Amino acid sequence: MRSRIHNKVSIEMCWSRALHTGWLLLLVQLLCLEAVPISMDKTKVQEPEKKAEEPPASVDTGLHYDRYLREVIDFLEKDQHFREKLHNTDMEDIKQGKLAKELDFVSHHVRTKLDELKRQEVSRLRTLIKAKQDLEGGNDIAVDHQALLKQFEYLNHMNPHTFEVDDLDRLIKSATNDLENFDKDRHEEFKKYEMTKDHDRREHLKTLDEDERQKEEEHYEEMKKKHADHPKVNHPGSQNQLKEVWEEADGLDPEDFDPKTFFNLHDTNGDGFFDEQELEALFTKELEKIYDPTNEEDDMVEMEEERLRMREHVMNEVDSNKDRLVSLEEFLVATKKKEFLEPDSWETLEQNQAYTDEEMREFEEHLVQQEEDLNQKAVDLQNQRDELERQQEQLNAQKIELQQAVEHMERLKTQNVEPPPEVHIEGNAIPEMHAVDNELHHEQEAQLQGHDPALQVQQHTPQEHHEQHQDLAQQGLPQTHQDLPPGHQEAAHGQHNVP
Q: So what's the pLDDT on residue 440?
């Protein structure tokens, strides 16, 4: 788990710089684009516009609304009035929303296109919200798009149809705020990376025996010393540092160093400003003194952090209007300062630990808590799995019982004998005769079971026998065995032969 965190932080640190470098090109477009004089001939105006539109195609700020931001800027630049106001407005006025108010004077064609861009962006956000909901398994839950859109502060979600002054103001403030917080977030990411690396090393030591642990510690200290053994690093932005670039990268004589010529040589896009990417390129020679990707002791993530530290330092010293760009005028003013001619020594990362002991302790406590949470989730999932298996076993047992019951019913069906067909005979009703015979039979059995000698053998006198026949005749019943059907004659004969 810790190794995955380590790898994730490493990837994030490498990507963060790549995403950050695109901001300056975008700000050049937004804040520092040179206005075209109104009196200039239109044929001459077209050429600068084409040059201005080319850079944004390759710029990526890393923001999730990057495309929307660039498209809005592209269309606003096509309006001449807005372009002039953009050139004459400083950074503080832009932050306070003064530039956004100029949207009311933009041409109808541009406003219509901005409306279309906003509708497309709102639709995109709703699609993202729906996709996120589907991934989280909430297909049956109603989505409150209005509530969810509140998290996107760079547009007014209450009006999804038209692009208004408030939308431009929100977009500028959100982009500016994200830009200002970028360095802070990047420092936190690097700090987490360093703490994770140190934590993993110490955890690895715990798995070793005494001899192996001692060898590992000795190797670690040796690598630290080897990394620290490098040539002196010049102070970023100082005369010595720039002269070294002038000589080694540009191939020019250090005695001929000229700040203005140096600026023009390294203003690679020719816009009259050093953006952050152009500044960072100036520190490559200094970083090569400290870091070599082929050396075990050199961490390339730390190299990028060192590069960004150098860039931040120069920006703080030279960027007087805090627009995150260094103009030629700002650069020339800085070259006349004492700090440029007689700079202090530069302390590299190995001389400045990225985190404190307290931060490391809190970080490790967080890792322990995170691991405990993961273990508890694993236990809960195992319990759920066991319960599901138990329920499955019960269902299987019920299924087997049901199958057995069905098979038993099928066997009973196949073994069941059908009753004989009912026989109907003309004349006296057979069922009644059966009833009489059954009644006489039951009376005889009851007499035999009672063991009454007087009743076991019943003697009839001729007179009584004659009277009995008369009663049967009156009831319409057969009087003798001969009067019964053949089957009944045998049954009656058997009854009289009972002892």
A: 46
Which residues lie below 8 Å from residue 442, measured CB to CB, with a gap of 6+?
A: none
- In the structure encoding, which two tokens stand for residue 127, read together? 């699609």
Q: Supply the angle between the helices 108-135 and 66-77 in degrees, to the nearest 10.
A: 180
When pLDDT is cut at 50, 70 and 90, the band that residue 296 belongs to is very high
- Residue 273 in 3-state DSSP? strand
CA angle 490, 493, 494 (to 5 degrees): 85
User: Across-strand partners of 326?
Assistant: 274
Partners of 274 in the β-ladder: 326
DSSP single-letter state for residue 137: T
Whole-model pTM over 0.85: no
Q: How many degrees, rounded to 5, is the angle at CA 491 between CA 486 and CA 495?
A: 145
Look at residue 168 and tell me whether its pLDDT is greater than 60.
yes
- Contact partners, residue 79, CB within 8 Å, separation at least 6: 106, 107, 110
How many CB atoms neighbour CB 320 within 10 A? 12
> Looking at the predicted structure, is the pLDDT value of residue 480 above 70?
no
Quick check: 134 and 195 in contact, CB under 8 A?
no
Mean pLDDT of 469-473: 52
Nearest-angstrom CA–CA distance, 28 and 494:
127
Longest CA span, the chain: 170
Task: State residue 150's pLDDT score.
Answer: 61
**H/E stretch holding 326:** strand 326-327
Instruction: Determine the residue type at 345.
Output: S
Q: Tokens 């405990």 belong to which residue?
A: 372
- Read off the pLDDT band of 137 (50, 70, 90): low
Local confidence band at 45 (pLDDT 50, 70, 90 cut-offs): very low
The whole-angstrom separation of Cα 263 and Cα 433 is 134
Residue type present at position 164: E
The Cα–Cα gap between 63 and 40 comes to: 37
Q: Are 474 and 462 in contact (CB under 8 A)?
A: no
- Cβ proximity of 233 and 286 under 8 Å: yes
Strand partners, 273: 327
SS3 (DSSP) at 347: coil
What is each CA distance from 273 to 123, 335, 467, in whole angstroms? Answer: 37, 15, 146
Amino acid at 30: L
